[in-house]
Amino acid sequence: MPPTAERGRLNRERVLTAAVAYTDEHGLDAISMRRLAAELGVVPMALYKHVADKEALLDGMADLVLTELGPIADAGDWRSTVRARILAARELLARHRWLRRVLETRVQQTPTMLNYLDSLIAVFRRAGFSDVLTHHVMHALGSRAWGFTQELFDDPNPAPPPTPEQLAFLSQAFPNVVAMAAVAAHSDGSVIERGCDDQFEFEFALDLLLDGISVLQAAQWEPPRN
Amino acid sequence: MPPTAERGRLNRERVLTAAVAYTDEHGLDAISMRRLAAELGVVPMALYKHVADKEALLDGMADLVLTELGPIADAGDWRSTVRARILAARELLARHRWLRRVLETRVQQTPTMLNYLDSLIAVFRRAGFSDVLTHHVMHALGSRAWGFTQELFDDPNPAPPPTPEQLAFLSQAFPNVVAMAAVAAHSDGSVIERGCDDQFEFEFALDLLLDGISVLQAAQWEPPRN
DNA sequence: GTTGACGGCGTACGGCGTACACCTTACCGT
DNA sequence: ACGGTAAGGTGTACGCCGTACGCCGTCAAC
Fold this sequence. Notes:
Chain A has 226 residues and is an all-alpha fold.
């Protein structure tokens, strides 16, 4: 294993890029320091010269892909700007499916993340939102501001459609769940068949919130005097 | 190690109860098959007679604590009923702080979880919500229906308040984040000091959604013909 | 040419989940 | 009373994981 045999020397960036690529392909559960090292043709401990530990690796990966989101693009009014931004984030999340779980467990806010939030908050404040309202609005958007929601029925590997007997049992045991599941968003609500259009659901909730926010802003909302 | 030395025999329930207790006290990262076994005065492999594997253990734990939520209590109108239910769930999540992360990674819906969802959905349907609307509404509530939101600034171990120099740097680098963070919900927005009232934020967003939902329901909302 | 920093290597430790084979107990029908 | 059988508990072992520590080769700056 010559250190510079044609694979060149490692550096932090190459490590992170490889980690992202590997995780994009094999999933978050698959990545480990040892496997990443193997991928790079290097002994596990070599990675520790570029990354403090595994947590720091994940931090770096998140940071790296978050830069794919460029600076925020003004779309005229605050509503469209925010909406577009959040949907762009959502698209990023779709490209890197491991990102959600990583963001959820990050404990330190990196400059990149703070930057992202700052730019989003700026939109509200520039549009004349009071600081208090902005505060609550950001909380209300919650993880949606990162482009994701924890869905109720998230199913990474969707189950096969139930057999008629199973269905019979289910609709007797959980009639309401079945009735609700039987509705498909943009198709004519036949049977379960993929259930629902995630994109539609996301925008539905997002718009519900944005509409509510609009009203509060227009009415010069102020926090209740407790 | 006599098998029945005064600690009695194990069974699935005792295993799960012990697991919940241990995790309540030491946190989700602390629990492992080996430590749980030690806690029960038993060799690690003994647990596998009561639980298929660690995932199943977590399933069982989630299931167990979810039963703490009794049957749904009718509060008159759908809005109050749903609201009370969700706030009760939130309280449960506060009692078992590990539960959020566990629910988020569950892959199989257990009967208990389906039951919970079913009862919630039932409220909407009984109130005359169409199935489509109910469907979207449940998605919109998303993880809030489980009593939690992934907050933007969740900080399990909150950082010490920044020193004046740090603050100066931060407010120059991320002016909007700092401005927003400086607002405290139910106090007269002074300085950062604990930032915000999580309960208020949760209800704020929940009510925003419930209000939006009310409007849709009153207007007999129908999905857009694409 | 020497020196130092940096990158990479090897070994080793303690922890994890769990497969497999075995032993012990409790309880059952006879 | 007794033998059988399933359920509960044990011991050993494997392959993974993250990473501490110490060593060595390479290369750049002097």
